[in-house]
Specification:
It contains 10 helices and 3 strands. By secondary structure, the chain is mostly helical. The chain has a single domain, classed as Rhopdopsin 7-helix transmembrane proteins (Up-down Bundle), CATH 1.20.1070. It has a 3-stranded mixed β-sheet with strand order 2-1-3. α1 runs parallel beside α9, α4 runs antiparallel to α6 and α7 runs antiparallel to α8. This is Olfactory receptor. InterPro entries: GPCR1_Superfamily_Member, GPCR_Rhodpsn, GPCR_Rhodpsn_7TM, Olfact_rcpt. One of its GO terms (molecular function) is G protein-coupled receptor activity. Belongs to the G-protein coupled receptor 1 family.
């Protein structure tokens, strides 16, 4: 505690031999962070520049990639600072803000994937009605809801958490996630109930909607011609791969928090790193390779670069 400024600091106890391998950790994480920013923004810029990519599907992809970059920027800069610091600490208020961004943006990804599933359903199953349903205003409303709904829910959780008394100032992690609940002297029943409601609204309902939507697409395309099935596979497969990847990330988060005390420190660190390493790189790679139009523009870009 800093009595003069009345600031509570939390010790991040999830690092393993950080003083011994600090430079290695720093170089690896900085390289990955630069790769994440470059890969994601390359595709976002392609979507911005090329008019034939100004369609709802590609706009949602760009939103998903921007969401991923912002989420990464919420964690990586602090991690890099911690690697080079003698003490790995964070103020409680900053910790709550990191918690808010991590879970609001994570929940937004589920909602964005749900919107993308609906977009694919209308495009494949109701192609004649697609232009009238997926208008610019509809896309804007979907994007606003995908970011605002989770932000409001997580903000309420943060407000409910902020005034709770702390009995433990050591967080078993390298950034602020659900483990902050273990710092409190007592658990709040109201907060727990609201947390469950938040998970249902921002994660479970979108996941069930996605599964229902792709099941409907599968049934309808199975009864259609080969070209329709091919189009469905080309556009839906990348979204499903990203969904599986993100679902694994969420499963990791739950496992780490629920079973964290039973996990060796090294194993917990490896699982945490998987949450923040592979998924932000996975999204642009999948969309860059599997989406035909994006892949075409990427090839042109690299060919021009080589020619220069």
């Amino acid at each position: 505690m800093d009595d003069e400024l009345n600031i509570t600091y939390i010790t991040l106890d999830g690092h393993v031999e950080v003083h011994k391998y600090r430079y290695l950790y720093f170089v690896i994480m900085l390289t990955v962070y630069i790769l994440i920013i470059c890969c994601n923004f390359t595709i976002v810029c392609l979507i911005w520049i090329h008019n034939n990519l100004h369609e709802p599907m590609y706009i949602f992809i760009a939103a998903l990639l921007i969401n991923s970059v912002v989420s990464t920027s919420n964690i990586y800069p602090k991690l890099l600072i911690d690697f080079m610091s003698e003490k790995q600490i964070i103020s409680y208020s900053t910790c709550l803000f990191q918690f808010f961004l991590f879970y609001s943006l994570g929940s937004s990804e589920f909602l964005l994937l749900a919107v993308m599933a609906y977009d694919r359903y209308v495009s494949i199953c109701k192609p004649l009605q697609y232009p009238t349903i997926m208008t610019k205003s509809t896309v804007s409303i979907f994007l606003c809801l995908a970011w605002l709904v989770p932000a409001c829910h997580i903000a309420v959780l943060v407000i409910m958490t902020a005034d709770m008394k702390l009995c433990n100032l050591t967080l078993r992690g390298i950034f602020c996630n659900n483990s902050i609940y273990n710092l409190h002297c007592v658990s709040s029943r109201v907060r727990s109930i609201f947390g469950v409601i938040t998970v249902i609204i921002t994660a479970l309902f979108p996941l069930l909607f996605i599964l229902f939507t792709y099941t409907r697409i599968l049934i309808i395309t199975y009864q259609s011609c080969r070209n329709v099935r091919k189009k469905a596979a080309q556009t839906c497969l990348p979204h499903l791969l990203v969904l599986i990847s993100f679902s694994c990330l969420c499963a990791y988060d739950i496992i780490i928090v629920r079973l964290g005390s039973d996990f060796p420190k090294t194993a917990r660190l490896i699982m945490t790193l998987q949450m923040i390493l592979y998924h932000p790189l996975f999204n642009p790679i999948i969309y860059g390779l599997k989406m035909k139009e994006i892949s075409k523009h990427l090839k042109k870009l690299f060919c021009q670069t080589k020619a220069m």
